[in-house]
Amino acid sequence: MKRQYYIAISVILVGLFLEAQTVLTPEDAMALALKHNYDIQVSRRQVAISKNNAHVLNSGYLPSLSGTAGGSIDQQNTEGQLANGDTRIANGVETRRYNAAVNLNYTLFDGLGRLYNYKRLKEAYHLSTLEARQTIETTLLQLFTVYYTVAQLTENAEVLEEASTISAERVLRAKYQFEYGQTTKLEVLNAMVDLNNDSINLINAKQQLSNAKHDLNFILGQAIEEEVAVTTAVNFLKTLEKEVLLEKVKLQNARLLQAERHLAIRQFDVKTTRAQFLPTVGLLGSYGWNEASNNNPLAFLLQNTNSGVSAGVNLSWNLFDGGSSRTRTKNAKINLEIQKLQNEQVLNEVLRNFSNAWTDYQNKRAIYHIQATTIATAKVNFERTLEQFKLGQVNSIAFRQAQINLTTVQLQQNQTKYTAKIAELEVLRIAGDLLNIDI
């Protein structure tokens, strides 16, 4: 009697606790992950780095401007002889020199290597945004997998909680029957063993649920011990069409788009290496100021100052570098061919993954609908067996089997429901549509 009382009280308390919690919807979880998930935050900062690299300030198109300045003081002893034969001596003669200059250096033409390198940096930036998008999609799929695992384990705990309650009632009934001589002690012991097994299953389910909540908090980027409750409602999309999604795969899939960017980068690498065979033309310019002063009585000028502007053009042409430029060009062309082969491989792999994901999704949806019928049958069977058990028309073994059948079917349906939803999200991820739909 006490066991049944404690179980009933625990069920009520758990229900009140869950009602007091704020239920985290899939949309809420998605928003939290996009804002706080560590992998997503890192990927965004990597995009920022690529954006900085692709800026005109890193392109080589702007001139370089430098300034120099200096000063020095000399102290010397001087002895000189004049034309009339007189000798003059100057000790401790101090000479001061000052200079300053501004230098300009600008490349007018470098064989278009600067242009192709700048375009390559632009492609690298676009590639980084696609890599960040792939990170976000992968993280969100991981998020929803853990989210629906929490939902599944939540429902599993409810099913096992109900099974424990039924087993506790069976123990109480067996004890009453034993007291009135309607059954044997063995019946009571069997009922207690079944109750203990159900209690152990419930404890394990709650432990799994606690661990899954920790995983969910980690992905959300919040405190591991943060209490979280999720919704167990699942809405399947009804408008998924294979041919439409297949076209989206070819146009939107993150891996295919990355492969295209890699190919463009390889093409610019080839053009950049070709630029090594052309001359480089540069513009030089400077403005300088110099001043020198001394107190030497033998000097013709006690102070000398000059300033002015200078400009010029230089040309350099690497006529032969031992063949290293030619080798780099050949290797760049080979890398371009390799990239083309890799793009074909990626395309076939993505199409294969989509086909497998679509089949998996269709099968899981079909199984889920079949199990909906199975669970209705199992409930009817259990309810009738329960009535007959109370009337003494079936034994405890038949009753327990009906109970196990119902619990098993309920747990299987919970699993299938959520794995079917994950399969649906995987199809959308491959199609590049995961961020464009309502979960």
Number of helices, counting only DSSP H or I runs of 4 residues or more: 9
Distance between the termini: 45 Å
Q: Given the helix and strand composition, which structural class is it? A: alpha+beta
Q: Major sheet: order of its strands? A: 2-3-5-6
- Helix fraction bin: 55-70%
Structure characterization notes:
- The structure is a single chain.
- The chain is an alpha+beta fold and 439 residues long.
- The protein is built from nine helices and six strands.
- The strands form two sheets. Strands 2-3-5-6 form a four-stranded antiparallel β-sheet, with no helix packed on it. It has a two-stranded parallel ribbon with strand order 1-4.
- α6 packs antiparallel against α8.
- It is elongated, with a radius of gyration of 41 Å.
Short key terms for the protein model shown above:
439 residues
Structure summary:
Helix content is 64%, strand content 17%. The protein is of the alpha+beta class.
Write the layout of secondary structure elements.
Layout lengths: L1 H19 L2 E2 L1 H11 L1 H16 L10 E18 L5 E23 L3 H67 L5 H36 L8 E2 L11 H11 L1 H21 L5 E15 L8 E14 L7 H67 L5 H35 L9
Parallel strand pairs: 1-4
Antiparallel strand pairs: 2-3, 3-5, 5-6
Helix pairs in contact: 1-4, 2-4, 3-4, 4-5, 4-7, 4-9, 6-8, 7-8, 8-9
